Amino acid sequence: MADATRHRARRGAAGALAAWAVSAGAALADENAAGDELARLSLEELAEVQITSVSRQAEPLKEAASTVFVISSDDIRRSGAISLPEVLRLAPNLNVARIDAGSYAITARGFNSRETSNKLLVLVDGRPIYTTLYSGVPWDTHDVPLADIERIEVISGAGGALYGANAVNGVINIITRSAHDTVGPMATIALGPEEGRATARVGVKLGETGAFRVYVDALEREGNLTEAGLDAGDSLRGVQTGFRADWGDVADQFTVQGDLYDRNSYSAIDIEGHNLLARWTHAFADGSTVELQAYYDRNDRSDGASSSSERTADLHLEHRFRVGDRHQIVWGGGHREIRSDFEFAPGQLAVLEPADQTLQFTNLFVQDQIRVTDSVSVTLGLKAEDGTYAGLEWMPSARISWQASERAFLWASASRAVRTPSRIDRELTLPGVLVGGNFRSEVLNAYEVGYRGRPTERTSVAVSLFHNDYDDLRTADLDPVTVVPFRLSNTARGSVRGVEAWGSWDPTDRWRLSASIALLDKDLEHKPGSLDITGIASGGDDPDAFGKVRSQFDISETVELDIALRAYDELRAVDSYVEADARLGWRVRPGLELSLAGRNLLNDRHIESDDAGRRYQIGRSVWVALRWRP
């Protein structure tokens, strides 16, 4: 009875939050505010969308010499998703596996599992959100109000030359809207028996050149069942608030933004933290620009067995300019300092030695995009990064692209990237069993070729073939003399080959069909003399193939129907599965939208992650959502 009362109280709180948003927003409405809803772009318009993640400079998607997929704000809205990881399922080049109510394993090009999905760099407006504790992304910690996202650029492939350590298999760049684009009130609420979310936002103008917004967001998700059908006790709830301010003129643009969050679950996980970012961009008369960004991030986490705290300070400078008509150069550098404290609860045998550690990373990079002819470009890049554990690492890259015709673009690349050691890699100790070692960086040498084009007015296609050579992969090796204690070492290597392909077809002006497939072939092995006892567990567990199909159909001018299917091949201890998500949306009037959405509709429950001890059964979920903006 107490749980039921508490459950109703939370639902009531979410409803009260939405009601407050509507009433407060109505009082502050700006009749000239830009609308949140965008009409679906044509395939030609999508090809011209400006992206920045591939070269750190604005360029149209159709000319980006990399495997990149863009999730637009309209894609997010039409997906019906109410959390960031679920939105990322839209990317055909990402393997998204939900582990529990808040945890996900998300990778590109292999190495997926809770413990091994550590080769993907995720940025929110230029702020990395991975943890140096284990080099992964704590998805139950970080979220963004979905209505504030302008686009998500998803790159699969090495990005070390521009982004440094941990941009090994890919980069996800989440770009939020300028405060200028969110003037006025906005409220969304989604309620269902399994999960719900409510967001309220108010934006105002600041004089002639500025704008400011503030938001508050609440999320709740019920727990799952264990493999044996018992309550997993992993329910999640959280509250987050934040702001963003943008102002300036043609020459100088300023941004200040920050977030404050508090999350917890029934499994005694408590998470809280905050961040603050400031950015200044100056445009010179000759067309060159310089950008200076600084941020501070703090995250505290406790789960009963351990507690950790990370405090990060980062400073980054970037300069973009042209030399003549053929060279477009971007260079820069930065310094990051991370104070990390970690302690196991009393009675735990494992420790990190030392418990407190300060990590420092300093980097310099340069990239030159050379226009060889009107249709051929060569891009050369190099990043040098010096870190506390790894020392100096060099990450070069070379790309060549050819605009073969108005509708066909081809490219090829070779690059090097590294995953630098985490604290667990270097300092985890279990007396008599495991000792800290001299774990080195994991290394990737990546090669890929790709094609992107529009064979007809109503079709678009992208295909990439890649070959990744890995060295110094993580192992746990026995002592050659005493057997124990063992230590984390780098005695595995191997290759991963694959194909990523996706395409879209507009049968009519009101209907778009999209489909994708990703094929993966992993061949990992021990180096001579390896005494690894894990069977190269660091290789993760990936399906040999997964595919996605999506239909976006405008039934009328005001009614939308979206259906998405995904199919995953089997893992070592998890069966293959096919699932479906759907959304029916009705635009009651401009600025007011009502929708019914469902996730995992084909199966009552299914398992997505082969994580020993956490093969939780993910259930079906249905909710009703309301989105309002005058």
SSE blueprint:
Blueprint: H1 2-28, H2 43-47, E1 50-51, E2 59-60, E3 67-72, H3 73-79, H4 84-87, E4 95-98, E5 104-107, E6 120-124, E7 127-128, E8 149-156, H5 160-163, E9 170-176, E10 184-191, E11 195-206, E12 210-221, E13 236-248, E14 252-265, E15 270-283, E16 289-302, E17 306-323, E18 327-344, E19 351-352, E20 356-371, E21 376-387, E22 391-405, E23 408-419, H6 423-427, E24 428-429, E25 434-435, E26 442-453, E27 459-479, E28 483-508, E29 511-526, E30 545-554, E31 559-568, E32 577-589, E33 592-599, E34 605-606, E35 618-619, E36 621-628
Parallel strand pairs: 6-9, 25-28
Antiparallel strand pairs: 1-2, 3-8, 4-5, 6-7, 8-9, 10-11, 10-36, 11-12, 12-13, 13-14, 14-15, 15-16, 16-17, 17-18, 18-20, 19-24, 20-21, 21-22, 22-23, 23-26, 26-27, 27-28, 28-29, 29-30, 30-31, 31-32, 32-33, 33-36, 34-35
Description:
It is a single chain. Helices cover 8% and strands 56% of the residues. With 630 residues, the protein is mainly beta. The strands form 6 sheets. It has a 22-stranded antiparallel beta barrel. Strands 3-8-9-6-7 form a 5-stranded mixed sheet. Strands 1-2 form a two-stranded antiparallel sheet. The model is unreliable at 1-38 (pLDDT under 50).
Q: What is the percentage of strand-forming residues? A: over 45%
Number of domains: 1
- Helix % is under 10%
How confident is the prediction overall: mean pLDDT? Answer: 91
Top-tier CATH class: Mainly Beta
Report the principal-axis shape: globular
